[in-house]
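Office hours follow-up: a student asked to see two folded examples consecutively, so here they are.
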Amino acid sequence: MQSRKKILQEKHYKTIVVSDVHLGTKNSGARQLVRFLKKNSCDTLILNGDIIDGWRLKRSGKWQKKHSRFFRLIINLLDQKKTRIIYIRGNHDDFLDQFIPFTSGKFSIVKDYILESGSMRYYVCHGDIFDLFTSRLGFVAKLGDTVYTFLLWLNRRINRYRIHKGKPYYSFSQAVKHKVKSAVSFISNFENEMCRIARYNMCHGIICGHIHQPANKMIDHIHYMNSGDWVESMTALTEDYQGNWEVYYYIESMPDLSNVVFPEN
């Protein structure tokens, strides 16, 4: 497992990538993301899909003040003209299809993007178009989203009991992902497919989101990176001016920082 870090001081990066914020849902970590972006600035901010959860807003979702604060921060960044912002459409914010491609000043909405990082080329996409269940069986995908929402609901209740008993926070939904063979197989297949697409686009690496599994690793000579999510893992990808990438874990959002229990891969 990669090391986890607290945010202790302000830092400026060349690039920050975040995805899967799911604004409009109860589980969105919008408040933590705003804190992160206020402390960590960048030349280019890539919003890699599922920033707004249009699926949930159509059903039982609710827009909250913390969700609006995120967009106020984005507007402030654009007003300052110091940050280029690239919004890549995901499956939960597929309503953006009617606007793509769109560019105004330093703000763009696109389906995918080629990022130059030193001598490296990265294909940046949300990842949903390569998900068979999302791209061909939309009903099944939305059913899976309902199950995941139930796991997050169950996660909150289990941890209320654990905290009451003096036990550390435990990510039940992550444990299910790591223990269910079909889920493990899906993640592995997803990663391999992403790498194949990177090769097809003549890129050295791939940057995606979608499956809520942060990663930074080499797969068959392709640099695979996943920005994770701002629902559970609270992660971002960061690039410095030497072209070094890392997964940044915002662990201040966890209920118990000293004894957090994470399931092993």
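And the second, which I mentioned at the end of office hours:
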Amino acid sequence: MLAASVVIFCLISGCASGDAAGPIPVLNPPTAQENPQKDSLVRAPVVMVLGDSFTAGSGPVPRWESYAARAARTLGWQLVTAGAAGTGFVNPGRVRRTFQQSFDAELSWRPAPDLLILSGGHNDHTTPGRVYGAARRLLVTARTRWPRTRVVVIGPIWMGREPRWVPAVRDAIAVAADEEAAVFLDPLDHPWGRGAILPDGVHPTFLGHRRLANWLVTALHEHGAEPDG
């Protein structure tokens, strides 16, 4: 019994001398199901959205409940928003800062995102030529700063019937986007349905932002403009 016990102990502990000992067994690497940290290695796309009150939030709707934030949660983005209410490609608004100036101050110094979305024109009640020039300059600046970043431009957003001047501004922004190889998304004439507009008659409700987010998610997919990540 004693001899047998010694033999079993040596087999288990590897006490045999020299190369006579058997090879040390190699453990198989954990499978995906056994490695919960594997999913954490997948990087979420970084998306920057520059816009006006529709992006920054307005009335009872804060920035983190805007259409941009809702789309980010749906698609799993790392979101950075910039801009301010009342601003546009030309209009500096109360903050005295155009989209170009907001880009320079809030975004241009950051590492390149996977996707840049410029959303505006609602506050640019001016000549289409001025809007075109400002939009084109901003797009050139963004391309120069981040040559590999995908760029999407969203035209003026109106939850109700737009004024007569808006389509010409929309077209000017669309031309600038096309010339700079950016994807242009047009929300004009989209039916947002009842309950989408705040009592001010302009800005979206929580429901309106949810519908805007659904529209954006669908439009990005249809145009193949989702960030690569």
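Two things to take away from it. The radius of gyration is 28 Å. Residues 1-22, 24-32 have pLDDT under 50 and may be disordered.
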